[in-house]
Amino acid sequence: MEDDPTTRRRRSSALHTADRWPITPFNRLFAPIYLLAVLALLYRHVTNLLVPATSSPSSFTTTLALLVADLVLAFMWATTQVFRMNPIRRREAVENLNDVVAEEGELPGVDVFICTADPYKEPPLGVVNTALSVMAYDYPRDRLAVYVSDDGGSALTLFAFVEAAKFAARWLPFCERNRVVERNPAVYFGSNRGHPVDGEVEEIKTMYESMKHKVEHVVEAGKVDDQFIDGPKEQEAFGKWSDKFTKHNHPTFIQVLLDSKNDKDVDGHVMPNLIYVSREKSSTSQHHFKAGALNVLLRVSATMTNQPIVLTLDCDMYSNDPATPRRAMCYLCDPKLGPENSAFVQFPQKYHGINENDIYAGEFQRLFQAMPMGADGLCGPHHVGTGCFFRRRAFFGSPSSPVAPEIPEVGPDHVVGGSVRSGSVLELAHRVAECGYENQTSWGSKIGYRYGSLVEDYYTGYRLHCEGWKSVFCCPQRPAFLGDAPISLADMLNQQKRWDIGLLEVAFSRFSTLTYGVRSSAGFLMGFGYCQNAFWPSWSIPVIVYSFLPQLALLNGLHIFPKATEPWFWLYPFLFLGAYAQDMLDFLLVGGTFQRWWSDQRIWLLRGLTCHLFAAVEYFLKYFLGIAAGFNVTSKVIDEEQSKRYDRGTFEFGVHSPMFVPPTAAALISLLALVQGLAAQAMSRGGGGWRDAPLLQLFVAGFGVVNGWPIYEAVGWRSDGGRMPLRVSAVMTNAPLVLTLDCDMFSTNPRTPLHVLCYYFSPPAAGRKYGFVQFPQRFRGVNKHDIYGDSPISFADVLIQQSRWSVGAFELSMSKKSPLFMGIRKLGWLMGLGYCHFSFWPIWSLPITTYAFLPQLALLNGVSVFPKVSDPWFLLYTFLFLGSYLQDMLEFTTVSNSTFRRWWNEQRIWTVRGLSCFLFGGFDFVLKSLGVSTKGFSLTSKVVDEEQRQRYEKGMFEFGVSSPIFLPMAMAALINLVSFGFGLGRVLTGGWWNVEGLVLQIVLSGFGVLNSVPIYEAMVVRRDPGKFPARGSFAAVVVSVVLCSLASVMFSF
Questions:
Q1: What pLDDT is attached to residue 386?
Q2: 843-852: pLDDT as tens digits
Q3: Pick from 123, 387, 992, 1002: most CB atoms within 10 A?
Q4: 290 appears as a binding residue in the annotation
Q5: Buried b / exposed e across 524-546, counting CB within 10 Å, b at 16+?
Q6: What is the pLDDT of residues 595-619, one digit of tens each?
Q7: Was 122 annotated as part of a binding site?
Q8: Nearest-angstrom CA–CA distance, 284 and 435
């Protein structure tokens, strides 16, 4: 049968076109040439390692560092080529959309998700403007629903949207009648473009200013006053809020602000749905940050509107083109693209207010334009968090294997029967927003946004591609969305550090792009291309190496690159210029300028020395030591002075941040190296002149100087608030007479103040100035033998508390007021040295760790580290050990009037502290000084668990929780046990006379075994909840085996 005219017209009407990038042939030709150069460079490094020119360790280390750096560069270059092999530029034909979708009612409905989390970092008025811009889309309003997720659970945000719903009734018809393009009211009224000046415009502007004033007043006041609440419905809504609600603890709250079936605008037309959602939060439940909020919106929207298309937006990313949904439908409704496997249409992130040269590279031309165009020639672009139209079905399994949700009402095929305000609909919506709803379901693993990474957008898009879904990149000439880019360097680096940590979570997960991605349905190239982002932080390795190594070598007169007379010399300029020229060409072709490209490459270097480096350290601290950083919302609040400096192109340092230390050090070292290198060359006599000069090192140092210019300005001659800070000072206050008490330290003597006054007013005190009177700390409920030597009844609490003390002690000992310097000068030698005993407490970890491992490992390898029994020096060790221990026991039992058993437990805990809290406290202090650790102050729990109490009273050590602080002591216990058994075996088989050189080591191992009996019980014998965790035992065994193996290699030399 012949097709009818309508069918023929639909088939002939293309909804979009796709053109190949004109530079593709050059990229395909250049790639193998550049690859050969890379292989040649790696060959040179390997050759120099195997056949070094000199046998010095420094030469080997230098070559190895350069090899590692160039291997990373080669890997990252290879992942970049994926996006240069088949880039596509698409153009949509919105005018043809009606040829495919015959009637407006056939357009797919769209649920819009907008997420916010903090009314002070993300001002509600900005979120409202974003919502109004999408509510005013040139799209059927009954097919549009806007959901606002408020993860902060703030009445301030709800109030802003209550006011926005009223204003929308005038704003939407105004935009339609006047064909307004800028449908964000703040942008429309704030722009300098000529708008029609008439009564309606002034009236609407007045309404907007009134709304703005109310919202800003409420946010400033921190509460919604009764004067701003209009009518019983609003009274009922805000009456549900309680003073007990916090950002992390509040119930589910869903408020329908506009209902498309009932609410009309001033012209009598329907309004889009506007729904406020604040999911339930509890401090005892996992919430998965933004991914968790989006999954709640997926479920809530499914029960209320369940539109087939979902648009996700950041709260500051407003719509800049009212035709955007129709542009997206040119792809989602195109039968040629295969709707059955088309998951999403991604728009690029664009930003307004970026200064002329984009000094912080906030445009991300590569990430948001060049790479998506390249990926569009494969499976499609990555998901970048905002400006993305999803097919709802894509969140529920692969194209060929759908995954059914736990209840059909949250699935993509559910048909909503009632109004969004109906009781049954709201009841179900509240239920699916509860914090415990996802327990024992597939949400976050097989359904919805995927959990497991801070960059939920990248990870979710990656998983969808791995399941076989495709995506499309839509980059219209007029930006579809505009957002705010950070104008503070610290904000920019912290934001990207958070991204880096999330990317590493993907790179080292079981869904790693390097192992899982390349074997998935996405194909090898797409999976390998995903590695470009997943291993983003690895850029820090080559950047650090080339920012310091050539310069330090130049300062020491060492040549690490070929001379100009060597053929290998020309390989380096080709690799450098080839990579930089190709990158610049890519940048310019997507609409950038040379000056912006220069800023982009400078920021690339800066990231390698800051956020990439610190993110890698934080990631490994989080997963190996359990020191985790929280999720920080990037502030959208703009400081006026900062904004002025940013507009002038001035870098904003301002705040004290450890991330500024590496780039500042690199800039200064590059400057010194360049000056010294040029001076040395100028003063050189004879020889080969410039031909024998370290030209490549001079170039690298000079390149670092040029890129470090903003740092020299900030350090050297700037005096504004954005200059590089020298230090941060703190001010403390005191009172003339103050009693300080811990919250659990109650008084047992009502006459205590009188005892204090006896010291202040008695005659012996004449002429003396008492600063304080200290009473001893006494504890109740300590068990018979005081197994922990302290008050908490949980072993982990004891060690964490003393780890905190250790950090504080180190802070004092390493400060300018250290007892070792100022204390001795101000207080005298004896008192100053006495304070040193406490401030240097954590260094006990050095001898304890040494004597807990080194003699034992030597014993296992038959190596003697102490004198033989027949050696006179043997008696010295015996005297030192027995003398110190006996004196300590005598003091403990007489002065403290305690028992031998309690003294034994005290010395055992002293050893344990050296292997745990002292060691970790010192480590935390070093990390804190470098600005790496984000560990906060942890209160010691005063809550007593009854079962813990019973075990404590029985004298049983309480391990229970899995903590890295238990690992060293468990390792020491295992190694001491094995070495002691090995030593006894040597004695039994060969007699004491054959092992007299190992006697002290055997005794020391036995002493360690005796002290470790509670650990052996907890690891092997006990079955109660306070036993040593199986995961910790396994880790201790594995690490102990590795350590013994390394010791075997070390002692074999």
A1: 93
A2: 878 888 888 8
A3: 387
A4: yes
A5: ebbbbbbbbbbbbbbbbbbbbbb
A6: 999 999 999 999 999 999 999 988 8
A7: yes
A8: 10
